């Protein structure tokens, strides 16, 4: 009975998590006890900085301040009992004498503690050679634990060799017969359950290893992305330093040149003034010397030679006195040439700067139409903007972004132009040209344009003489019509490029073809071109009769707008890498209001740059 009682005590001293004898036992608020190390491991499994620890047995929560398990109360009674058990000697359970010797091993298969004599005899039996024998010293130290056979609490002489899956508990054979014989109780051998349990644990461990490997790959991927960002930072820093050094070098050169220019322009004036000063000072000296000679004589000369000399000196003095007074206008005129030399600090693109990371000021207007429908835009004679939609309608938008009117609501707008008398020229569908009055009434004018099969789709523009130019992508040509309709009066070939968008410019046309802008005359001869690989380019005419070109990085949703001369030479940057909402379609239009604002429309949104 004493041995059975010891077994019960030994089982009660095991931690439910690690299944070893408790070490530094800590009590949760639910009264369950666990090793401090086990609670630390459980707390590490909690995400974030949550201070609530859930009991593995009853799932009740215990608050752990600052996630410090050591602050939980210690189970002093259990800790003392563990120390007492460790300090007690385990006696041989095989010897029959009352004065039992001390045990040195425990046989897992026999479930018995053996002294040295019994252990030697046990080792000689052929059937016992394969038994698992544990040294008492290792059991006491906690290196191993006795797990195989538990003694039944109701029947201390019986081993709990069975396991009821429904009750989730081990039981001896007698308990199975008495308590677990009802229908529905699934009873299996404890060894089979242990084997199944260990296999389940191994499967979970395998899955956890795979999950951990997957998460580690994710962490490695994050590190890789972080390294790329770090490389970008390093590269940008190097580029900024190089740009700074290059800019300093260029500024130094410009400073030296400007200083030389100032010196050249002012030194000439200074030389002129010095010569005037020298002449005046020589006259002063001459006048002073003669006056001194003449006026310092106290005796009247009677000698003829002396008299002649004195008369000549007086005459020289008189002549010197007759010389005109100095003219202040002459040095003033010379100084003006120097005083007008001014250093004016230039602003804008002509000023050498390292460059700034900025967002251009713009107003975005989501027009009340279906997404992706904006397809054309043109400035109106009264200084507003007319925006056409594939789904139908033209919206009139002011420079401050106010939608003031919607017209032609049932017309499919693929292109739009305005004649000098205010009539609208509309591409109603891909290639059909229609004419509308000021009151937006359709005129009975027929234009013999190409069909959709022939031209695929078209764009149009109107020149100052009210000639209508319609470009076709498929046939790569431009038809020219008069407002009277009928057949095209002439055809302009587009050799080697596709006229995606056309814009009238004085006696020329501006053709946008993907990454290239071409300036052609109205016979089709290419005069100038500008290309930018990787960009979509769209052109417009500014209010100062220069050319505006929008450079669109469609994949990144970035827009830059630059000003060019009539020879497509760069003048200045107006908008730099402005972030737009990236549309699905890469179809844009560019125009400028009469008041100076620049309008850029994507298929979804109208942007007005101030």
UniProtKB/TrEMBL annotation:
InterPro entries: 6-blade_b-propeller_TolB-like, TRIM45/56/19-like, Znf-RING_euk, Znf_B-box, Znf_RING, Znf_RING/FYVE/PHD, Znf_RING_CS. Keywords: Metal-binding, Phosphoprotein, Zinc, Zinc-finger. One of its GO terms (cellular component) is nucleoplasm. Residues 87-136, 147-190 form the B box-type domain. GO terms for molecular function: ubiquitin protein ligase activity; zinc ion binding. Residues 15-59 form the RING-type domain. This is Uncharacterized protein. It comes from Strongylocentrotus purpuratus.
């Amino acid at each position: 009975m004493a041995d059975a009682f010891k077994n019960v005590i030994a089982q009660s001293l095991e931690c439910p998590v690690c299944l070893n004898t408790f070490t530094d036992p800590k009590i949760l608020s639910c009264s369950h006890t666990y090793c401090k190390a086990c609670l630390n491991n459980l707390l590490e499994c909690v995400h974030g900085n949550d201070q609530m620890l859930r009991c593995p047995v009853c799932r009740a929560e215990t608050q752990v301040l600052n996630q410090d398990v050591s602050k939980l109360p210690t189970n002093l009674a259990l800790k003392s009992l563990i120390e007492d058990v460790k300090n007690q000697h385990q006696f041989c359970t095989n010897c029959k004498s009352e004065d039992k010797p001390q045990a040195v091993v425990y046989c897992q298969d026999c479930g018995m503690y053996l002294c040295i004599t019994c252990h030697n005899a046990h080792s000689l039996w052929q059937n016992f050679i394969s038994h698992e024998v544990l040294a008492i010293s290792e059991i006491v130290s906690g290196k191993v634990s006795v797990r195989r056979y538990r003694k039944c609490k109701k029947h201390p002489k019986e081993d709990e060799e069975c396991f009821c899956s429904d009750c989730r508990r081990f039981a001896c054979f007698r308990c199975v017969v008495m308590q677990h014989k009802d229908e529905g109780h699934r009873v299996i051998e404890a060894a089979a359950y242990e084997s199944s349990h260990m296999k389940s644990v191994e499967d979970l461990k395998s899955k956890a290893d795979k999950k951990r490997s997957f998460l580690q790959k994710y962490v490695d991927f994050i590190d890789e992305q972080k390294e790329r960002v770090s490389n970008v930072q390093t590269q940008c820093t190097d580029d900024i330093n190089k740009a700074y050094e290059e800019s300093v070098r260029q500024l130094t050169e410009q400073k030296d040149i400007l200083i030389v220019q100032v010196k050249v322009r002012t030194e000439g004036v200074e030389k002129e003034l010095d010569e005037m000063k020298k002449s005046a000072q020589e006259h002063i000296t001459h006048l002073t010397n003669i006056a001194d000679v003449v006026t310092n004589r106290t005796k009247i000369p009677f000698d003829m030679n002396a008299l002649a000399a004195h008369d000549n000196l007086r005459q020289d003095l008189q002549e010197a006195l007759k010389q005109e007074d100095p003219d202040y206008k002459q040095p003033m005129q010379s100084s003006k040439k120097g005083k007008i030399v001014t250093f004016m600090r230039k602003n804008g693109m002509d000023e050498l700067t390292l460059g700034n990371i900025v967002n251009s000021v713009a107003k975005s207007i989501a027009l009340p139409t279906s997404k992706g429908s904006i397809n054309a835009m043109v400035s109106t004679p009264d200084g507003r903007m007319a925006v056409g939609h594939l789904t139908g309608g033209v919206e009139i938008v002011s420079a401050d972004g106010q939608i003031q009117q919607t017209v032609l609501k049932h017309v499919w707008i693929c292109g739009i132009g305005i004649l000098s008398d205010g009539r609208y020229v509309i591409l109603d569908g891909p290639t059909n040209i229609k004419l509308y009055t000021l009151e937006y009434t359709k005129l009975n004018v027929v234009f013999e344009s190409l069909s959709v099969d022939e031209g695929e789709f078209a764009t149009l523009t109107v020149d100052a003489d009210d000639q209508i130019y319609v470009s076709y992508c498929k046939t790569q040509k431009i038809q020219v019509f008069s407002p009277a309709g009928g057949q095209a009066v002439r055809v302009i070939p587009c050799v080697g490029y596709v006229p995606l968008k056309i814009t009238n410019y004085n006696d020329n046309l501006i053709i946008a073809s993907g990454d290239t802008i071409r300036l052609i005359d109205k016979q089709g001869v290419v005069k100038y071109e500008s290309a930018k690989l990787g960009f979509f380019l769209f052109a417009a005419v500014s209010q100062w009769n220069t050319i505006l070109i929008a450079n669109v990085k469609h994949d990144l949703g970035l827009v830059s707008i630059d000003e060019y001369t009539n020879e497509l030479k760069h003048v200045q940057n107006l908008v730099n890498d402005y972030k737009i909402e990236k549309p699905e379609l890469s179809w844009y239009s560019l125009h400028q209001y009469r008041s100076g604002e620049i309008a850029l429309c994507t298929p979804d949104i109208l942007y007005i740059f101030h």
